[in-house]
């Protein structure tokens, strides 16, 4: 449904994105994840036909962004990073205008507008002038505008930015529920958002794609070691050395002390369960073991690993 092939965009001498390629299947909700300045907005603006690439191509719903840009703009829904709204219109007038621009037939417009206002939680402000709305409400009007043409493909640039916690939950579940119904690509730099909403993640850093996978697979793929947290009452350096000496231990990182107790993060070969060996080593030295538990890698750890690896390369 979305096929992106080798997109590159230069601003002057500097490439904002380079050779970006990926595909999104029909009905999939995909997250476009990356730190500030990674190239998310640049990629999305190109896909939404608001700016041409320097090179490369993309097709959305079978339409070529270079050759059929007007048709792409009419057929897809796009929530830009900063929503350009018409301040002197009321919410309802603006959405009716957007529906017309998207080619919604006149008899269906008012019903369609009422429907998207309901879903985006803005029915209560429909007669207010847009310029008097708070940032969160404007964001939701932008989302309603993206949905009003009932598009097959939705491109959402940071859809939860500026919303309060309750609205974030509601908008996330609205997007999540589009699975199977629309093809969605949404950008974010909030890691938990991706696990909550998306079936796949595309990770971009410094203008290049560094990984494409499901949140679960990324976890597995990158978790070459497993980690165990121990809390030990004993002399820190001796404990560290003893733990590091256990067969199968790859690394030991002392953590911040809490209530005078020392914690150690032990990385081990993931094939082996070293919990008993570690406990025995501590006991044999006569120290107290107050905690021992496995720790999962978070998406945050994975992201840092991916990005670090990319920078080392
Ligand atoms: N109009 C422009 N002129 C020059 N450089 C630009 C322009 N727009 C973006 N850039 C640069 O391109 C790179 C990618 O920017 P982009 O806005 O796509 O990142 P982003 O991933 O959306 O970041 P954020 O999370 O901050 O929104 C950045 O280095 C940015 O400084
Ligand atoms: Mg951006």
Overview of this structure, please?
The structure is a single chain. This protein is of the alpha/beta class. Helices cover 36% and strands 29% of the residues. The chain is built from 11 helices and 14 strands. The strands form 3 sheets. Strands 6-7-8-3-9-10 form a 6-stranded mixed sheet, sandwiched between helices. The protein has a 4-stranded antiparallel sheet with strand order 2-1-4-5, with helices on one face. It has a 4-stranded antiparallel sheet with strand order 12-13-11-14, with helices on one face. β7 (153-157), α6 (165-176) and β8 form a beta-alpha-beta unit. α3 (91-101) crosses α4 and α4 (106-119) packs across α5. The mean pLDDT is 89. Magnesium ion is lined by residues 40-41, 81. The site of adenosine-5'-triphosphate has 12 residues, from α1.
Characteristic key phrases:
4-stranded antiparallel sheet, elongated, 2 domains, about 35% helix, binds magnesium ion, 6-stranded mixed sheet, Rossmann fold, Alpha-Beta Plaits, about 325 residues, alpha/beta, binds adenosine-5'-triphosphate, 14 strands
The main sheet comes to: 6 strands, mixed
Number of strands: 14
Radius of gyration: 25 Å
SSE topology string: EEEHEEHEHHHEHEHEEHEHEEHEH
Kindly report the name of the CATH homologous superfamily of the largest domain.
P-loop containing nucleotide triphosphate hydrolases
| Text of the CATH class of the largest domain | Alpha Beta
């Amino acid at each position: 449904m979305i096929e992106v092939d080798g997109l590159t965009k230069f601003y002057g001498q500097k490439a904002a994105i380079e050779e970006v390629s990926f595909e999104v299947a029909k009905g999939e909700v995909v997250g476009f994840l990356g730190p500030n300045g990674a190239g998310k907005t640049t990629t999305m603006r190109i896909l939404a036909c608001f700016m041409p690439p320097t090179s490369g191509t993309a097709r959305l719903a079978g339409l070529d962004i270079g050759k059929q840009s007007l048709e792409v703009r009419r057929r897809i829904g796009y929530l830009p990073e900063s929503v350009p709204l018409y301040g002197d219109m009321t919410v309802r007038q603006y959405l009716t205008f957007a529906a017309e621009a998207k080619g919604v037939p006149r008899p269906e417009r008012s019903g369609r507008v009422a429907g998207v206002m309901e879903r985006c939680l803005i029915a209560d402000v429909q007669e207010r002038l847009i310029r008097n709305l708070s940032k969160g409400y404007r964001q939701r009007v932008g989302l309603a505008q993206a949905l009003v043409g009932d598009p097959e493909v939705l491109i959402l640039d940071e859809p939860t930015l500026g919303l309060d916690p309750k609205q974030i939950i509601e908008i996330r579940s609205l997007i999540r529920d589009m699975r199977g119904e629309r093809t969605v690509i949404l950008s974010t730099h909030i890691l938990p958002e991706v696990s909550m909403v998306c079936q796949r993640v595309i990770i971009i850093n410094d203008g290049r794609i560094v990984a494409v996978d499901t949140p679960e697979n990324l976890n597995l793929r990158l978790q070459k070691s497993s980690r165990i947290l121990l809390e030990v009452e004993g002399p820190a350096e001796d404990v560290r050395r003893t733990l590091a000496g256990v067969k199968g231990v790859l690394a030991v990182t002392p953590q911040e002390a809490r209530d005078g107790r020392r914690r150690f993060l032990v990385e081990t070969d993931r094939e082996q369960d070293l919990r008993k060996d570690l406990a025995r080593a501590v006991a044999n030295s006569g120290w107290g073991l107050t905690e021992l538990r496995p720790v999962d890698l978070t998406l945050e750890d994975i992201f840092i690993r991916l990005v670090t690896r990319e920078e080392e390369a």
